[in-house]
Design a protein that fits this description.
The chain is an alpha+beta fold and 91 residues long. Helix content is 31%, strand content 37%. It has 1 helix and 4 strands; from the N terminus they run ββββα. A 4-stranded antiparallel sheet has the order 1-2-3-4, with helices on one face.
Length: 91
Amino acid sequence: MAKNSKSNRPVHEIRMGRVRAAIWENDTQNGTRHNVTLSRLYKDGDEWKDSTSFGRDDLPLVEKVAAQAHAWIYSLSRNEERDNSKGDDSF
């Protein structure tokens, strides 16, 4: 289970301003699946923290970051499908 060593880190991150999407990879019986966590970065004194609460002005960025995360995952799955079909000699 080589992917367990990476399970505590996202496979990809997308960030716009203080809004971030972290994309996580999960191996299942049905193949690899991806989940996304959305967060907002903020500074508390000298320390950076994150929150899953968004204000009105954050929401347009949440929408854009979520759309980019979707596109990244979709592109990845399309590439995997294409790679899997290369070995298929049937038409």
